[in-house]
Structure formats: structure tokens, C-alpha cells
Specification:
The protein is mostly helical. It has 30 helices and six strands. The protein is globular.
């Protein structure tokens, strides 16, 4: 029997292909299939707990959460509205959980991430079991896709990490669960539940908008709602994300989280993206499970070639219910492929495998488990053999950061910190090389200073007396720096993930993913240092003066840099909200040269190098 006839729910004679699974099933098969859900989930829990950690990027979330709980609002630094958290929903879940439990935010993010990951796998496996038992009846199931996932060390690493990966897994599994129920449960709450949950995708991660679109298309195909019902479903899906987007535009003044702006998420770099894929596939010889899984899918899906006319007739005979089942199978596969393609297009990421894992999980949902037959059982045997070798032996061929700028992030920090399971900010602040000295300087009795690292030490420079912050600290590792800097201080991010000025500099050359924009340090001293301060060695005073002028010059038409600063620094009011909202489109696309001299000439029309000093009307001279 071909998969087409199975999906349509009918045999060649037109009768139901398999009995309903609503009645009692043989006890042994039920127990076996339940074990196929519980055992992989337990394995993931054990491996994830063994590799538990919080990444430096995970610590970025914790500072914003602490700012919210302290009453300062969803900001990274007080007095500067910047959305440093890529996952809006994860940020607010941590806020709620921290408020309830009063736990250390970093430790809470690790534990909650592991629970979300395990719950996501359990729900996805249960849903796939339900899908196959509805169609194939009471036959036992064997694990396939889930073996390919559990064998990968990055899956263990990002079961925690303090990032939103666990929430992404749970969100994906929840949408999958509702999608599988959709053809068999006519109740409106299932359709509206899927619409609402799918609509939250961009708030889990902006790139999950791809999956959101796919699930909503599947909802339309399966239910075929009338116009009013369609409008109601769309309203259910997009009301919360739309309201938050209005808030984002008015409060932050841009259309996207700041990391998406600084990483230029709309730019394409196919070559680097393909290298990112190979960084995952080559070390673990992923062609082996891919070939095995593809063989199983093809063997179950392709109609018999000896009867092309019969296959064509069966295709024409598929009814609405049959197309609904085909949609259920096809949508996660297509969404997974589209998500993987998007990651390749934008050039991948700097963390080994991280951005590919959600797409792989989505792609394999329909075949996490498959009915046992003469093709699936030997395939599972091959996969178990590969998985055993992969889990024990296969690793990336580099330590820490590889030659392409991609990092085995957990291994890098575990090696640098000399801590097996760094789950708190203290692990980073106390143990990261060179950081303790700068951290102690920031925590010492210095008042109104900039702490700036320099080779093996640091410099302390007086802050602008007009700034209320007691200290401003500069460090490339934003998470640990933000964890150490007081909440009323300024943690400066030269990469732009939490620093609006750095996020909007021009991207001139491609380099390490996520680390390509490093703003000229002169801008930081222009914005934060006292005009009379003695600058550290290596800081060009001409560039600092040019940057000061560029930050304040220009009228309403030419002063885009000043307007950018006003959008994040002016006290929030209804007038400021409206200005931010109406200018969000232009502001999101605005870029300026990182060289302050070039920027002053481009934005202000002043060639600083042609003058001995800046013009007398410069208020920041």
C-alpha cells in the first residue's frame, strides 16, 4: 500500500485502510510506544543536565530581566532604550518566573530552558506517535528522526545555555500537537489555539515567522474557513504580536530587536552560510543519517512504479480528509527546509550548530518515530550504530573558535573558565581571563568613570559630569560585563547587540558572524567621557572630537544621528512615542560610517581634518 492511500485513509478497495485507534490497543504495543516517547526524553534530560551551562549571550537576557524587576523597564542600560533580547517571549517568561521564585536569574534560565527542551521533545514524540497510530493502527513504532537529533552534542549543549532554544523547541512541538489534532477535532478551540500559538512565533524568535506562516497556511488548508472565520483566526494570530510591534516601534524606535539590526538579518551571505552548514554536517558525518532517513521516506512515499495509472487514479481519489493529512505531513518538512535555507542565506551564526537546530527539529517532526516494518527496523539499527559512535567519538575539529570564526561555544567557555558547569554570572565574572581585574575596577570606589580594557590591564577615564551613571564599562563579552556592571551603570557593547549607536554603523566587510560591526572606540569616549578627560593611549582625540560633533550636529533633515540618539535617550512621553513610531521605518534602515571623521563629513558637512579645531559653534568642543 502506498503512502498516498495511507494518507487518504482508504485502501485500494475503498475501505478504511486501518482500524480506528480510539478503541483499546494491545497492551504490549501501547507500552512499547509509550517507551518510545519517554526514553528519548529521559536521555535528553540526562545529557542536557550533564552539559548544563549558561552562555555569555544568555547572560544578556539576565541583565534586562533584572532591570525590569528593579523597575527600570525593559532596557539593558538605564536611560537608553535598547531591546537587547532577541526573544521577547523568553525575556518576559524569565521575568515572571524570577518574580515568582526569587531565584538567581541565570540559574533559573538554565533550569527552565532544560524543562522547556525536554517538554518539547516529549510533546513532539507523543504527537508523532499519535499521528502514526491514527493512520497505521496498532503497530509498534521505532525511533528514527529522534535518534539523529539525540546523537548530536550541540543538541545537548543547547538544551540549556540560558537562551531561547528550549522555548523554541516547546513552541514548535505545541504547534505540531495542535496541527495533528486539527483534521480530527472539529472544535473551534483547536483552530484558534493553533492560530494563537503560531502567531507567537516571531516573539519567540523573529526568524520563526517562517514557521508561523507555514502553520497558518496549514490551518487554512485543513479547515477551509469562511471569510469571517478567516478574519477571526487572523485576529487571534496577530493581535498580540501586532500590539507588541506597536510598543517596540514607539518605545525603542525601530522595527526589530537590536541584535537583528546589528547582525543585518536582511543581508545575504550564501557562501558563509554553506560553511556554517558544513561546520555541523562534516564533523558528525551527518550524511549517514540523512541517507538512511531519506531512504525510509522514499521507500514509504513513492507509489509503485509498475502501476503509474493506478497511482494517478489514487491521487485523483484523495478526498478533503486525505489532503488534510498530506498537509499535516508536508508543512513541518517545508517549514524546516525554509528555516534551514534562511540560516544559510544570512550567513549562519558564530555558535556551532545553534541556528540550524530549530530547522532540523522541525524538518524531522513527522519521522521522529515511524511504524515498524521491514525498512524501518534495519534503518533504526543503522542509526543507533551511527549515533553511538557519534555521541562517543565525533567532535568538531577545533578547540574553542574555529578557523571560520564559528565557536564550539560551551567548550570555549568551559575551557576558559575552568568550570565544568557554569550556570551563574559569578562563574564568568570570577574566572574569565583578564576580566576579574576590570571587574574589580568597576566595583571599586571609582565614581563617574569609564573602565576601558587595555592589553593586560585597564584604564579609568572620567565620565561626562552630565551623565547620571556612576560607571561605564567597556568589554567585548557583553553578557559577563552586563552581569558585573551595576544596574544604574552603563555596560557598553562595541558590537551593537545592546548599544544603539554601534548597531547602526555601516557593515563594510564580512567577518565573524555576529561580530562584524565593531564601532570605533572614539564614539564611546565622545558619548560618555568628560570633555576635559585625559584619553587613554591609542584613542585619537581628533576622532573623539569629530564623533562629539556628529552626535549633535544637523537640522531636522540632516541630523539623523542626533535623532537616533534622541529616540533612545529622551524621556519617554506621548510625543516621543509618536516620533519614535512614525520614524521607526527610516530609523531601522539608517546607517552611518564607523569612522567619526567620515561620519562628521557625511552627516554634518564638516571636514574635520581640514581644520585645526572644530567649528566654534560646536557645543561639545
Amino acid at each position: 500500500m502506498s503512502l498516498v492511500s495511507v494518507l487518504s485513509g482508504r485502501s485500494r478497495s475503498g475501505r478504511r485502510a486501518h482500524p480506528s485507534t480510539d478503541g483499546p490497543q494491545p497492551r504490549g504495543i501501547t507500552r512499547w510506544n509509550t517507551a518510545m516517547v519517554l526514553v528519548p526524553t529521559l536521555i535528553l534530560l540526562i545529557l542536557g543536565w550533564h552539559r548544563r551551562w549558561i552562555s555569555d549571550d544568555g547572560l544578556i537576557f539576565t541583565r534586562t530581566v533584572r532591570q525590569i524587576l528593579a523597575g527600570h523597564g525593559p532596557v539593558f542600560n538605564v536611560g537608553e532604550r535598547a531591546e537587547a533580547s532577541t526573544s521577547t517571549l523568553w525575556q518576559w517568561i524569565l521575568v515572571l518566573a524570577s518574580w515568582i521564585t526569587q531565584m538567581d536569574v541565570g540559574r533559573l534560565a538554565v533550569h527552565l530552558g532544560l524543562l522547556c527542551t525536554a517538554a518539547g521533545y516529549a510533546l513532539a514524540l507523543h504527537t508523532t506517535r499519535r499521528l502514526h497510530t491514527r493512520i497505521a493502527g496498532t503497530i509498534p513504532l521505532v525511533p528514527l528522526g529522534v535518534i539523529a537529533l539525540l546523537a548530536l552534542p550541540p543538541v545537548w549543549d543547547f538544551a540549556t545555555s540560558g537562551l531561547e532554544t528550549g522555548l523554541t523547541t516547546l513552541w514548535t512541538a505545541g504547534c505540531w500537537w495542535l496541527l495533528v489534532r486539527l483534521p480530527h477535532d472539529p472544535r473551534a478551540r483547536v483552530a484558534y489555539g493553533l492560530a494563537f500559538l503560531a502567531g507567537l512565533g516571531p516573539m519567540v524568535r523573529p526568524d520563526l515567522a517562517i514557521a508561523t506562516l507555514g502553520f497558518l497556511v496549514a490551518l487554512a488548508v485543513v479547515r477551509r474557513p469562511r471569510l469571517l472565520h478567516t478574519m477571526a483566526l487572523l485576529g487571534t494570530a496577530f493581535t498580540v504580536p501586532l500590539l507588541y510591534e506597536i510598543f517596540r516601534m514607539g518605545y525603542y524606535g525601530v522595527l526589530l530587536p537590536l541584535p537583528a539590526v546589528t547582525k543585518e538579518a536582511s543581508a545575504a551571505d550564501w557562501s558563509r552560510g554553506w560553511n556554517y552548514v558544513r561546520d555541523l554536517t562534516d564533523p558528525y558525518h551527518l550524511w549517514i543519517p540523512f541517507v538512511v532517513l531519506l531512504a525510509v521516506v522514499v521507500g514509504r512515499s513513492v507509489p509503485r512504479l509498475r502501476d503509474p495509472a493506478g497511482a494517478s487514479a489514487r491521487l485523483r481519489a484523495i478526498d478533503r480528509a486525505g489532503w488534510a493529512r498530506i498537509t499535516v505531513y508536508a508543512v513541518p518538512v517545508l517549514c524546516g527546509l525554509a528555516m534551514l535555507l534562511y540560516v544559510v542565506r544570512v550567513g549562519g551564526d558564530f555558535m556551532h550548530a545553534r541556528m540550524l537546530l530549530p530547522g532540523l527539529f522541525m524538518l524531522l517532526l513527522p519521522i521522529l518515530l515511524v511504524p515498524a516494518n521491514r525498512l524501518a527496523i534495519p534503518a533504526a539499527t543503522v542509526l543507533i550504530g551511527w549515533a553511538t559512535v557519534c555521541a562517543i567519538t565525533f567532535r568538531v575539529p577545533y578547540e574553542g573558535i574555529g578557523p571560520r570564526g564559528i565557536a564550539d561555544e560551551r567548550a570555549f567557555y568551559v575551557g576558559a573558565l575552568k568550570v565544568a558547569n557554569p550556570v551563574t554570572a559569578y562563574s564568568y565574572v570570577a574566572n574569565y581571563p583578564r576580566f576579574p581585574a576590570a571587574a574589580n575596577a568597576a566595583r571599586a570606589d571609582h565614581t563617574h568613570v569609564i573602565v576601558y580594557p587595555w592589553y593586560d590591564g585597564f584604564y579609568v577615564t572620567a565620565l561626562d559630569p552630565n551623565l547620571p551613571a556612576p560607571v561605564a564599562t567597556v568589554w567585548a563579552n557583553l553578557g559577563m560585563n552586563g552581569a558585573n556592571t551595576p544596574l544604574d551603570g552603563v555596560s557598553v557593547d562595541i558590537l551593537g547587540l545592546a548599544y544603539p549607536l554601534a548597531a547602526h554603523v555601516e557593515l563594510t566587510t564580512r567577518g565573524r558572524p555576529g561580530h562584524e560591526k565593531q564601532i570605533d572606540i572614539a564614539w564611546i569616549f565622545a558619548q560618555y567621557a568628560s570633555p576635559d578627560a585625559v584619553l587613554p593611549p591609542g584613542i585619537d582625540p581628533i576622532r573623539v572630537k569629530a564623533a562629539r560633533y556628529a552626535l549633535t550636529c544637523g537640522d531636522a533633515n540632516r541630523g539623523k544621528l542626533k535623532e537616533l540618539q534622541d529616540s533612545v535617550h529622551e524621556p519617554m512621553s506621548w510625543s516621543r512615542f509618536k516620533k519614535n513610531f512614525t520614524g521607526a521605518f527610516d530609523r531601522t534602515s539608517f546607517r552611518f560610517p564607523t569612522n567619526p571623521v567620515t561620519a562628521a563629513k557625511e552627516i554634518c558637512g564638516i571636514d574635520v581634518l581640514s581644520k585645526d579645531v572644530l567649528p566654534k559653534d560646536n557645543p561639545n568642543r
